[in-house]
Amino acid sequence: MAHTSARTDLDTLRDRPRADVLIVGAGINGIATFRDLALQGVDVAIVDRGDFVSGASAASSHMIHGGIRYLENGEFRLVRESVQERNALLKTAPHYVKPLQTTIPIYSTFSGILSAPLRFLTHRSGKPQERGAVLIKLGLAAYDSFSRDGGSVPRHRFVGRKKALAELPRLDPSLKYTATYFDASMHDPERLALDVLADGLAAGANARAANYVSAVGASSAGVRLRDTDSGEEFDFSASVVINASGPWTDLTNDAMGTASRFMGGTKGSHVVLDNPELLAATGGREIFFEHSDGRIVLIYPLKGRVLVGTTDLEHDMTQPIRCTETEVDYFFELVKHVFPSIAVDRSQIVFRFAGVRPLPRHEDEAPGFVSRDYRLERGELAGGTPLVSIVGGKWTTFRALAEHLANDVLGLLGRTRTTSTDGLAIGGGAGYPATESARRVWTTSHGDEIGRERADALLERYGTRASSVIEYLVEGDDEPLEGAPTYTRREIEWLASTERVVHLLDVVLRRTSLAFVGALDRSLLEELADIVGGALDWSAEHRRDEVAEAIRFLGEQHGLTFTADEAARAL
């Protein structure tokens, strides 16, 4: 097995500080553009000041969706592209993107018919007004018209109160109808992004990537890069620089000496609840509806937990991005609105997270009506190096955005496209068994030494990349983690050794779902630090520091509580 050190990646940049294209920001849009350019044979490098996909892309609602509500904004091009990309991802990334049945509770028949055209024309929200059955029916009919793609997802359906409550008996009995349609879930967004990154790196030595490297300046010598751990700096030159730092785009441009005022992102928060009663009440469906304040919100079963979100609040990018207690109160209010007989409280929160959407500056336009579409802004760095900044964009359209941007960059380089990413399988989606019988064949053939059940779990977790994991597992003695027996010691070793892990937080937040589902305590963090530290040659002191930093960060950013004794031992 090829071991890949993240610091070795940094050395490859420092030893050859030049590329055709440098991408600053390794969220999903930056990573997808990296993959596209790498597949064209372009000499491309990507850096991020934190871990890969650790910023806005790590704070998503875990959905791949067409954006039905964007129809009201008149964004028909975006909806069409989003639905097409959703349908494509169901085929190219079937290990992480699955059909998601979505139900809208509806409380009136005609509400919103008069106000909707005004919102459409002015993009001013005015007094919030619930959308009634007629308006939702029109929207879903239009949505279905964009969704025709060989039956990727079924068409929508409407039912009245009696049938709705028979299907989902814990819904508010005062509703009049429900509308049910299909979008798609993305149960592991960070892992999907890591697969996209791995595809780019697999293109060859022309593709290089390094995390924990920030762009702190620019001159005629190139972009000034800094190793965020050691503080060491060096210049890196490129023929084209792409700013893909999402909501931080203006701050990155300022740091590189090219002031901009492109961004006006809004904060969206979520909580993850361990509430079996609420989980059962969803019937495996996402519940998607409009709250009384006009905000579109969701209650979404995921990984045996329930994800509740999201808000849409103005945010200053120089300030911390956290889910506040006021937002938690808001989430509990909306759960009560939909499932009035189910009690939720703070003791059931196992994880909370917040991110800022990379929206364009929108002045007095209501946040909910700001375009989720993307655009590319041209500029220049010192010495005349072309700079392209991405403004906007969302998870669902990452491949299409990357194709658009890559085409522009290829034009700047005087090159032409040689490979299309349209329909190209992503990572462990290649060869993924599409039927139950095919899945049984795969798990049987790969389960000789680890068992079919374990092979099936790894297939679900990594797609067909699980074959590489299994090869590593059987090369040595292995045992389940004491604190999380669905993972094993050698599996964590494999992640640390092959997926550019730098810190313990990279493992618990992005290489696994351990933080998301509320599985962490101090003893598990220590167990993980021992395994990761062994793989990355950490000293005993380094391991203690990583555990302490994980406890601090998870408490401040994600609301994870450790006992006073556990916290004290971390100091």
Examine the coordinates and then state which fold CATH places here, giving the name of the CATH topology of the domain at 9-57 and 190-262 and 371-413: FAD/NAD(P)-binding domain
The N- and C-terminal alpha carbons lie at a distance of 36 Å
CATH superfamily of the domain at 9-57 and 190-262 and 371-413: FAD/NAD(P)-binding domain
Low-confidence blocks of residues: 112-128, 566-571
> In percent, how much strand structure appears in the residues?
15-25%
Structural class, please?
A: alpha+beta
Describe the sheet with the most strands.
10 strands, mixed
Helical content (DSSP H or I, runs of 4+):
25-40%
How many DSSP H or I helices? 19
Protein name: Glycerol-3-phosphate dehydrogenase
Family: Belongs to the FAD-dependent glycerol-3-phosphate dehydrogenase family.
GO molecular function, one term: glycerol-3-phosphate dehydrogenase (quinone) activity
Enzyme class: oxidoreductase
